[in-house]
Amino acid sequence: MEKQERFTIDKEGHLFFGGADCVQLAEQYGTPLFVYDEEAIRAMMRVYRDTLLEEYAGNGAVLYSVKAFPCMALCSMAKQEGLGLEVSSGGELYTAIKAGVSAKTISFVGNNKSKDEIAYALDCGVGCVVVDAYTEIETIDDMAKKRGIVQDIMLRINPVPDTVTSSLSSDSKFGFSVADGTAKMMTAFALGKDNVSLIGYHYHIGSQIKNRKAFLSAAEVCMKFIAEMKYKNDFETEYLNLGGGFPIWYTDEDERITLEGYRERIRELLQVVKDKCAAYRLNGPYLMLEPGRSLVGEAGITLYRVGSIKNIPGVRKYVCVDGGMTDNPRYALYGAKYDALLANRANEKNTEVVTLAGKSSDNADVIACNVSLPKAETGDILAVFSTGAYHYSMATNYGRTPLPAAILVKEGKAEIIVKRQSYEDVVRCDVLPDSLK
Ligand SMILES: Cc1ncc(COP(=O)(O)O)c(C=O)c1O
Asked: Ligand 1 in contact with 244 (CB < 6 A)?
């Protein structure tokens, strides 16, 4: 099923997503509600998995970047589809283990992992720790020695190209710079340790990267570095992780990339690796791709109920919904843009341009500006598109707002995958000392 076909509208003007009536979903499960189309997620997972299999002779793996939408159901779905996982915190690792994912298929990434997190990862038996700090190598080496193990690690590098043809930057807290020699130095340092085994390199150039060339330039820099390590430093890279970062559609300012479009992007990236392996006479490393946003972003929408509406003549009209920056802080964080429609009147023409605001006591509590809608009324159901990635994971309890539920829909049937928080959940960690009772 192609991506746009996921959305249909019935005779009554109800929006259907993943075969389910969004108006009924809102009634049944309440709002705000994260709704995920299972088939859409699986289709994207297969695009990555199969393209890597076909174009790189199966010598690799796709890791789902759990931070995009961290929950047990998604970890389990990734496992079913033959994907491994990339986790970036102890909490994500715990979620994955609780979901029954084998630790061996998990990579643990992060620029400032705590000692507790590293100890937990080693005790779980994670396949690989992606190291992004000098001190981390010493910590892992010490902890592995105490446990009588040798831990596989990769080094996170920052492959900023010499020629600036991309949006990459050397000013980043992530990765050891290839350009200034730190990556080379860290390689020698890691190779000198007995209880870590350096198996290769990892990089991730950023997220929602629209410049296709940026991916190719980074791969070129990385492959040149790998060749240098082989011929001048006698280190052969066995594993290479190219990260995630492919963009998705949010509004018509973004390209609508089809499944074939993603296949093409993966293919052209793999082609750089293959060409450079041939040019530098390298054994092709085992390749990992680590997507998050492109797997789940467009496969998720958020349903809200419209509450108050405030028109300020000559200024703007606010349409306020029962969620906001607590379930979607992306406008407040980086001015993100969204498209939306009224799920109960999806066949009506747009007649006005409004600002979608939330219910929190904060002026930054906006979901999107300049959204075209039919004249909204209190009680309408609003569907905001492309909210599957970095929404639930960035949601907060600001204002003691309970986190919304998330459901998975498939062929019109829905299942809860994350329960809505209750007020009791919100106060669960509060402690009232005797002196304050
Ligand atoms: C290390 C790492 N890998 C993978 C990803 C996933 O990136 P994306 O969601 O853009 O595919 C991220 C997210 O920024 C990341 O930090």
From this structure: yes
